Amino acid sequence: MNKLRIHKYLELIIFVVPFLLFQSACTSTTVDEFRQGATGIKTDESVVILGRRQGSEYETREEFVDCVGDRVSSGQDAVTVIPEREFVDAMFPWFEPRTAPMGVSNLERLMADNLVSEQMEKFGIRYMVWLDGFTETSGRTGSISCTAGPGGAGCFGFGSWEDDSSFNARVWDVKSRQNVGTINTDASGQSYLPALVIPIPLIARVEANACSRLGDQLKAFVKGG
After folding, report:
1. What are phi and psi of 64, to 5 degrees?
2. Which pLDDT tens digit goes with each residue over 47-59?
3. Where are the alpha helices (DSSP H) in the chain?
């Protein structure tokens, strides 16, 4: 590759990449809360956040569940969160995907078991939160090709796609055996992959934004705010 071509590609990188960085940072996130009952939590009470995994088409990712849990359990107004894996292991087999309660009425029957109620009391569980959702990629456009030769190797082209994250959190009050509300979060953004000698991925952080917004809203919800 001659010096003139290299110079042109460097000029493209200087002008195009900052623009795409700005564009990729622009994600849209909306949060909707539907409250069905009063909430509040004491310092000796805790929350457990679980991912729904009964669906045949997708499973709520464990990483997203952990992310929301970390958000709820951090900051000055932090709420105690029992890690999902620790809770599921201690409650085996009642909260495995095939046996987990699908509704509050199922929770009522489950709590009639002394072993379950004792373990719940041991953890200090006040609210059980079920996360359900996924991130979908669509609208892929463009192409990238890579070549190698005597003058060197490089990739050239441009690609883009859209990421959409949609999650909802159903909050069960273990004490009153009621579904006290639902929080829905949707985030979308455009990702880019320009290749000027080397590919430079510019990824929209839609799932991270969905996690932070959902976590903050959930924390306020269980505290009664």
Report:
1. -70, -40
2. 999 999 876 667 8
3. 3-24, 62-72, 84-90, 104-111, 114-123, 206-223
219, pLDDT greater than 60: yes
d(CA 58, CA 55): 6
Residues 64/211, Cβ–Cβ less than 8 Å = yes
Single-letter residue type at 209: N
Q: Which two tokens stand for residue 214?
A: 């959902």
Distances (CA, A) of 119 to 34, 47, 82, 166, 170: 29, 14, 12, 32, 21
36 contact partners, CB below 8 Å, separation of at least 6: 178, 179, 180, 181, 182
Residue with tokens 């949707």: 186
| Identity of residue 104 | V
User: How would residue 6 be classed by pLDDT, with cut points 50, 70 and 90?
Assistant: very low
Whose structure tokens read 């003139």?
Answer: 4
Tell me if 186 sits within 8 A of 162, measured CB to CB.
no
Average pLDDT over residues 41-66: 90
Sign for the CA dihedral angle at 34, 35, 40, 44 comes to negative
- CB-based contact 207:25 (threshold 8 Å): no
Amino acid in position 174: V
State the CB neighbour count (10 A cutoff) for residue 45.
17
What's the whole-model pTM score?
A: 0.82
Chain segment 151-177, per-residue pLDDT in tens: 667 777 888 889 999 999 999 999 999
* Sheet with 46-51: strands ordered across: 28-35, 178-199, 152-173, 125-149, 46-51, 81-82
Rg (CA), the chain: 23
Token pair recorded at residue 21: 């960085």
